[in-house]
């Protein structure tokens, strides 16, 4: 075990020059979490960049926020469950989600250091495609079509077909992203990445999303 730790340490210490400034392209897969005022959820993203100056790269990213959950959707779902319970004697549990696919392009500035870690700052603009969804699960009572499913069954499609609930349509909104992080080489052309990103989505109700990101990628 001691020999393995020594070998790993030597590998990391000698990896500093392996991600050199003359490598023009990077590709990274990123995962992490994003927090809004309403919820915390996952965030996955793929990103690629091309060097246009000694310390400057232009980048593009494509990703998904698993759930931004704007505050106006859950009350709509809660209102539906209340109306069904009082008007039809149908008890269901309703949950709302607002996943969002996004694409962003911008600039990334790499800070010159003497260590093996490479800090960076970035900023970009793009769009987010928000797709509000809701799920209703059966508790008790009788559905509008006269059926009585098992407890916990997903009855969303039956309620939508009966006109008891209509999900808001998808929308596209402008967004911008600011952030930074550090890249650490682990092998020739390969490195790990840890960072922070803040995104502002200009939806009907503007959303602020922020969180940590962790990635693994290559340079060439």
Overall pLDDT metric: 89
Strand count, sense and closure of the main sheet?
Answer: 8 strands, antiparallel, barrel
Number of domains: 1
Q: Under CATH, the topology is which?
A: Porin
Report the top-level CATH class: Mainly Beta
Kindly provide the radius of gyration, computed on alpha-carbon positions and rounded to a whole number of angstroms.
23 Å
How many helical elements?
3
Layout: helices, strands, pairs:
Blueprint: H1 2-13, E1 25-35, E2 40-53, E3 56-65, H2 73-88, E4 91-97, E5 100-110, E6 118-130, E7 133-140, H3 156-161, E8 171-187, E9 190-201, E10 207-219
Antiparallel strand pairs: 1-2, 1-10, 2-3, 3-5, 4-7, 5-6, 6-8, 8-9, 9-10
Could you list some keywords that capture this structure?
220 residues; alpha+beta; Porin; eight-stranded antiparallel β-barrel; two-stranded antiparallel ribbon
Please give a structural write-up:
By secondary structure, this protein is of the alpha+beta class. It contains three helices and ten strands. The protein has an eight-stranded antiparallel barrel. It has a two-stranded antiparallel ribbon with strand order 4-7. The longest helix is centred in the middle third of the chain and has 16 residues, at 73-88.
What is the compact description of this entry?
With 220 residues, this protein is α+β, with helices and mostly antiparallel strands. It has helices at 2-13, 73-88, 156-161; strands spanning 25-35, 40-53, 56-65, 91-97, 100-110, 118-130, 133-140, 171-187, 190-201, 207-219. It is elongated and about 70 Å long.
